[in-house]
Amino acid sequence: MKKSILAMFALLLSLAAFAQKLPADEITGIWKCDDYKIEVFKAGKTYSARLLWSKVMFEADGKTAKKDVKNPDEKLRSRSVQGLTHITGLVYRDGEYVDGKLYSVEDGNTYSLKGKLKGPDDLETRGYKGVPLIGKSFKWKRLEKL
């Protein structure tokens, strides 16, 4: 019994230590959730991501990438959404990624974004307008580390 309690305590301590020691660049890589696949990369002192795949990325033929038709800037409406850098400005602070911006090609709006690594291959992000309580969360799995 005593060994079991000690083992459990050691496991909890190692998990807590692991969670605190993930370096900021650990977020870089290829990530996938149910509806999207993105590549997160370092852009100067912040982190950004480009859209590699989404369920709504292609026209009915399944090959032609859709255009950014809902962009509020008319000059950008003819650009392809495939490969579009849609996440910008994420800053690593106190173990979390904060102050990011998420441009949604689905509605043309820009949202605030924050995120946190839950483990080396698990990322949780939340996009929101105003306060994080009112928003949408995404759980990502790493496919490839960069």
UniProtKB/TrEMBL annotation:
Gene3D superfamilies: 2.40.128.520. Residues 1-19 form the signal peptide. Residues 29-142 form the DUF2147 domain. Keywords: Signal. This is Uncharacterized protein (DUF2147 family).
